[in-house]
Amino acid sequence: MSNKMWGGRFANGPDAIMEEINASIGFDYRFAAQDIRGSLAHVAMLAEQGIIDRDAEKAITAGLEQVRREIEAGTFTFSRALEDIHMNVESRLAEIVGPNAGRLHTARSRNDQVALDFRLWIRDTIDQLDEQLRDLQTAMAQRALDFAAAVMPGFTHLQSAQPVTLGHHLMAYVEMLGRDRGRLADARRRLNECPLGAAALAGTSFPIDRSQTARALGFDRPTANSLDSVSDRDFVLETLSTASICAVHLSRFAEEIVLWTTPQFGFVSLSDKFTTGSSIMPQKRNPDAAELVRGKSGRVIGALTGLLIVMKGLPLAYSKDMQEDKEGTFDALQSLSLCIAAMAGMVRDMSPDLKRMKAAAGSGYAIATDLADWLVRALNMPFRDAHHVTGRLVAMAAERKIPLEKLSLTDMQSVDPRITPAVHDVLGVEKSVRSRTSFGGTSPSNVKNQARSWLKRLAKETPQT
Ligand code: ARG
User: Fold this and answer.
1) What is the pTM of this model?
2) What's the rounded Cα separation, in Å, for the pair 260 and 162?
3) Is 157 one of the catalytic residues?
């Protein structure tokens, strides 16, 4: 049997393999709510413009509401022979309301329909992700306030560099996620134009009112070029690139959690809630959630790469290749959502070992810069000379296997006789972090201020509906 939606010129049905490669209902069923929303707006506009009569409008509207209820209740039967969500909905509509259902598709094509559904879906998903990111930032800023003064080593090259605080480290991620949310908001602003009414590619001869449907669906305006409207997937690409950057941020923190929870670092531990055991090594507690957050970033980046490649060779306007825009996107954004939730869980769950972090902060001569800075300040030495003197003191301490602050004044004066006992005022990890009061620096008072102002801002942001 030929397809009942478009089979007029077809005598026979497709080969089974054709049906399999062609169908998208296996994944685009996720657009059901958006598809019905779009159709309701379209049918209202058609009636308003006198393109269909009010009886047809009423019948179609009631029928669409019924289809929605059936889908929500799980009683709707999706059919692969009907290819996609658009034809599944319309075919059921025809069963419910009869021939009037056929008027719904006036001045519309599946090309503008799918472009609309996907925009609506992406917009909803952006709003959900934004809310989740807000929650993760809140969790991080709260913990940052708790640990504003908790000293730990700061690294460069993964070598102890200078002491920082755990609060400062957490606030670094709050900033990153803030930028991610900014990028999501930018993508949302740009995508918020309505492609409905572009029809197949050239627009339509019916007197439609595209501004009405745009407004009804919460868009700022209709898209301006019908060819662009049906062939554009920038809104997916932008969202996936934002998602990729965000996934990379989460992956970097996940990597740190993996390191920090090793017995070798021992900076933090996670409870039973976010770890698993080994079936052979009874002592083990593995940070699987963190590893999976790190691992899933690959899928998100993969979806972006995949779609860029799908799009790169497509002439205007719609080509069926574009049906490949969905599965990777669904998978990527669902994975990201799960990763954000897991990260928020781990941030709330983790308990730092403050003693161990502090001890580690002092090892590796991490306060050498403080000593050099003191030489500059107290003795008016040029920084390069101070760096050299400090290097010699570090070498001396390292040779004796003692920390810098354990060098006697006499020893220090043997390197530079101008050094006074006041040098001990700066030797110590807590003193070091307290002194880093420059804007954006790691001092506990800075960190507290930053965390408090973020928490205030986050509490004020009401979730978009
Ligand atoms: N299922 C299709 C997609 O996802 C809908 C658009 C079909 N358009 C067409 N001209 N066959 O892209």
Assistant:
1) 0.94
2) 17
3) yes
